[in-house]
Protein 1
Amino acid sequence: MQDFIPFEIVEGDYDIGMVLIADHAMNRLPAAYGSLGLPESAFRRHIAFDIGIEGLTRRLAARLGVPAVLGGFSRLLIDPNRGEDDPTLIMKISDGAIVPGNHPMAQDEWDFRLDAFHRPYHWAVERTIVRASASGRAPLVLSLHSFTPFWKDFARPWHAAVLWDSDGRAVTPLLDLLRQPGDIIVGDNEPYDGALKGDTMYRHCMIPGIPHALLEVRQDLIADKAGIAAWAERLAPIFQTLNTQPTLHEYRIFPSRTGPYPG
């Protein structure tokens, strides 16, 4: 599997002080894993990746001229947006779909997936953030995800949502700017809570005190090139405005709602 790279870094101007992250950008698997015993159709579903996010992240990175880190593997293999000790790190069942290639699993295989995929991805995120902070200022980190229009029988009304823990420095102005045009419904910690111990924002932003926000866009709105272009056009000036605020380039540690930080 030496030819399988578990991340992609989209190069940009690190001096701008902004980093984009897309944990679930891709639905790829190394050839040795086949399809994990799932039908090919499973890899076009949200259980495999965040639909539309790769295209949106690439377009925003190009428009803004900033670096981005893209997850290069399907979250069905191992979820990069989970802590190493999270029981949902490698899913046996995902939204009703049994994943035969994930159960049963020997500890050696669990450890291998951490070493070969999860950890290299997070090292890439860490290196990118460090490079963007070379001037001594904290970079603004924006994580991009997408969510399904429905959950079971519930139609999710939000067009976008911002997830966060307790550091609201970037969240409050982001919510205000998203809502300002008045043409979309924006959720605040919807459709799920953003405080998750060990996830990407916890690990790379909460612990070191870096300003950040996680933005979710509803998948049906960015499922094609036209939708991606429209949302990049909406988000780019908002991200640029956020990046001009001095308070979003300061290190400040906030306590996590999940409990004390490790060590």
Note: The first strand starts at residue 7 and ends at 10.
Protein 2
Amino acid sequence: MNKSALVVFSGGQDSTTCLFWAMKNFDRVEAITFNYNQRHKAEIDCAIKIASEFDIPHLVVDMGLLNQLAPNALTRNDLEIKVGEGGEPPNTFVDGRNLLFLSFAAVVAKQKGINHIVTGVCETDFSGYPDCRDIFIKSLNVTLDLAMDYTFVIDTPLMWIDKADTWELADKLGRLEYVQKNTLTCYNGIMGIGCGECPACILRSAGLKKYLEKKEAAQ
């Protein structure tokens, strides 16, 4: 039986690296993107463009209800992005986002006869988001299996690596330059290198700098 995977895909650095990882490791790959009226619609356009370039069947799902239920800095342009203090997650954390995204992805995957769901969550650089933890993914995997009487495997290729390692993975997959130029991670909606000031850009650029220094030292 051919292995198949559905990638939860935002068009950002992590999910795009996961898409390329899935393309290497599975015979059949599809992608799913969620429109929850996020701060910048540009990321949806970015996801559509990347999927189209690589002939990946791609579904965009309307999740506008999430915006209504959980207003925060990722879903409201009038809220300033703030880093969490005292152990609290930053105000870019959307309650229930990964729970809902992975649950809806599982529904779609089952309808398509796909068992593997690939997501770019990472505990090493999880920025205080509780739904990026390995324990949550494992728990949800069991729940989805039981809820649908179907065997799912939630693959998390980035779970135990940092941003520098994520850049290294993209490079090993032959896609370093592509990910640099064609993905959107910036909270302010700027493609590629981004604004350089938001938490996502700082994490992304620091990881790239660390990886390139490591690569240069090894040569």
Note: The longest helix spans residues 199-218.
Protein 3
Amino acid sequence: MLDLTGKNALVTGIANNRSIAWGIAQQLHKAGANLGITYLPDERGKMEKKVAELVEPLEPSLFVPCNVQDDAQIQSTFETVKEKWGKLDILVHCLAFANKDDLSGHFSNTSRPGFTTALDISTYSLIQLSGAAKPLMTEGGSIVTLTYLGGVRVVPNYNVMGIAKAGLEMSVKYLAAELGPHNIRVNGISAGPIRTLASSAVGGILDMIHHVEEVAPLRRTVTQLEVGNTAAFLCSDLSSGMTGQILYVDSGYEIMGM
């Protein structure tokens, strides 16, 4: 029943085969979506090569650099989408970053540049990318982002990223309200802790994963592909009546009091 054939999907945030974005891209491809992949460019081109080799089996029809701190690159990305595809149906936002120094120690010691960086990349980028996608979603569309429990509860060593995720979740709601009349849905997935390149910057990530395995109702953590399945659902017509929602894919950990 889940069929994304004929849908154009732009996926951001793939860094390696542990990325949640990679799990989402695989499931969108499996459902028949036509993929476009963005990567974070670097001077030596290492990331471009690494991501290109990883996504090759998915046969993306677009592969473009997009540093969300560079307005010109964002504009270029969506101009390429318009030129090559004409329209966009799906936008997957899997972008988050905070300086490691701002993910440990006292929260009140968060630096001003660190706060700005975390909110810019992790929160504002969803707003900016959604605004750029809006005129290309001429037949409606679905925007999906990734969040975490640390945006609504205090999680050790999450610090400024918790503020960024809180802002991200409210951005989902405000964007859903704005874009709903255009038949564009905006939702978020709050995934359980997964060992990724981004999460490795959070101190004690392995302890967090083991804790979830002990406490969550399913007595395990989740995989990238399980998050990918939920993303595919949110990008499909099966979720046509849902917008502005945060879905927890965390083996039920979120419901537990202790």
Note: The CA atoms of residues 24 and 228 lie 4 Å apart.
